[in-house]
Design brief:
The protein contains eight helices and five strands, in the order H-E-H-E-E-E-H-H-H-H-E-H-H. By secondary structure, the chain is of the alpha+beta class. Helix 5 packs antiparallel against helix 7. The two termini are about 40 Å apart. It is a multi-pass membrane protein.
Length: about 230
Amino acid sequence: MPGCFKKMLFSLASLVSFVSFILIVVAMGTPKWMTGKILCKTGADLVNATDPELVKFIGEIYYGLFRGGKTRQCGLGGRRSKFTIFPHMVKKLNTGLHVMIIIFLCVAIFFSLVSFGFCILNTIKVPYRAINGPAGACLWNFLAGGFVVLAVTSFMAAVKLHHVTERIANFQENVFRFVILEERSEDCFWICVASATAHAVNLLLIAISGIHFPKIKTKTEEVNVTAEDIMY
């Protein structure tokens, strides 16, 4: 029974690792890591717009690691446009930090797949316990979840400290200047949190699998051997 229970736990852990891998891939392809509202300050200053009129100068912006879009409102109606971060826009951002975020997520994808494979190995009881035992599976899950946390933390640092949203909003804007009124973390943030949480759940499952449960032994009946049994 304990062996079957451990197999079930490692099977569940391998499924969680694969789900985490899918979540990270989806997060990298999601164009809405951050959304916000942008004010066309140049247009508002030209007409000396008051509070009720500022609505005509407030647009929207969203972006992810590779692409995004914005709606410019400069008093003449909204103009929608889409953009890509690479290869030109990234030069206006903190290039090293942005590339580091992508690298962190790629490493997290790698360790998620490694965790997935090693959990399967533990399920089918392949040898080399020193490599693919519970301690090894814990290590891979810890590394995968840690790199996801590093990626999310680095992205939020870039947004807050390096004003990434404002730089993107004003990219190739020669006439108008935009200021950020509001910023919100969107789908990607919660997807990455879910991925890191999945690895935390895996650590819990692997810890439970290390508990040694008492084996159930069936009581054998004692056989009385007599002299007559020996003779015959």
